[in-house]
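== Item description ==
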Amino acid sequence: MRVEHARMHAKHRGHEAMHAEMVLILIATLVVAQLLLVQWKQRHPRSYNMVTLFQMWVVPLYFTVKLHWWRFLVIWILFSAVTAFVTFRATRKPLVQTTPRLVYKWFLLIYKISYATGIVGYMAVMFTLFGLNLLFKIKPEDAMDFGISLLFYGLYYGVLERDFAEMCADYMASTIGRCSASMSSASAAGASWERSRRVPTAKRR
């Protein structure tokens, strides 16, 4: 046994230094990546929000298909279809008069559902930790899975709808601002043209 132990130490000699170097490289990479992300967010917030939103929206689809989470896939498809339609309406120019109300109603509905789902999931987890699930003859594993699933659904779709709502609001605000600017410039041009018509008339008198 001592001989084998000595051989193992001789074989793995120097691995401690290599492991320490790997940990230091990992920490340095995380710090540099965090600094780069912060700078990107500060200098180009719009592209940062678009890229992070796209990743958060699409990446779970890969794991859903791979792990056969069909319930999540169905909910994701329904949410994506309606949200894509609402986002399409919000980014059109000129903006339809009923679009802001549609955007507000849809994202408010998703917010309420996500909030309620998260609360129910949190309560289910807490009841399971206190053993109240045994009163209803529910296994702790099933109760905990149910609570964590609801918490995940509430957090995921809550954050997703918040980012989509901010994006749609920015697009609609920019569209409304351009329309207001064009209307004000048109009214100013009309007023100056009206004044130019009145000046010759006054001179004739």
Q: What stands out?
A: Confidence is low (pLDDT under 50) at residues 179-191, 199-205. The chain is about 85% helix and 0% strand.
